[in-house]
Amino acid sequence: MAGLTIGLIGGTGPQGRGLAMRLALTRQRVRIGSRQAERAKASAQELNGQLDAAVPGLDKDPAFSWIEGDGNAEVTAKSDVVLLTVPFDSAAATLKDLVPHLKPGTIFVDVTVPLDFGKGDVMLRALPEGSASKHLRALLPEAFPLVGACKTQPAGILEQLDTPLNCCDFVFGDSKEAKATVIEILEKIPHLSPLDVGGLSAAATVEGMTALLIRINRRHNVHSARFDVTGLHP
Q: What digits encode the pLDDT tens for the residues 186-222?
């Protein structure tokens, strides 16, 4: 896994920004993409400034790789692992645009959740395939493994670098090798425990947990609810 480049499509949004910074601090190479390359480059510069402010002396660390920004196609073509962090409504169209730029062996990570917001309520959208991840799997060529991850991470907490995550992340997919790579990437983030929860059939359950988290946040007037699993180790 050494030397992998991680690309975040939709990396200028709240969740993409937070994940980019958390991943960059683990000394992994991170690129963020946007439909407008200049927007991604400006966002990367801003995030690098936040990292520099959060970690004194980071600019003197020769092992650190600063976040880079570019257009979605360019980021996809240069990444070994591609995370899709765009809103679900634009996920299918974005994926179709990305497919021609995926290089052989690329792992595709779905971070999207299909939510419908009503009057003071949030519901998981019913999809013909049963989940967002299965919906996108049907659009992705079989040669590229799809892994679901980071669906229950609150964007606000991800951007607060001085706040430990202290939670689990539920990782699923039908390729054991791809899942293992994604778990290895995520477990480098301090205080985050990636947990293998099985195949793609777990997608609807995990996506439903995101809707539950939003309900909890609203009910208790917080923005930081997240899941932790106990009892896994004696």
A: 999 999 999 999 999 999 999 999 999 999 988 899 8
Provide the whole-model pTM. Answer: 0.95
Provide φ and ψ at 94, rounded to 5°. Answer: -65, -45
Which residues of the chain carry a pLDDT beneath 50?
none
pLDDT of residue 114: 94
Report the pLDDT value the prediction gives residue 119, as an integer from 0 to 100. Answer: 72
In the chain, what are the domain boundaries? 5-220
Side-chain half-sphere of 153: how many Cα atoms within 13 Å? 34
pLDDT at 223: 87
**Rounded distance, CA 78 to CA 68, Å?**
11
CATH topology for 5-220 is: Rossmann fold (3.40.50)
pLDDT number for residue 234: 65
**84, 112, 165, 233 alpha-carbon torsion, rounded to 10°:** -100
* Cα distance between residue 79 and residue 31, in whole Å: 8
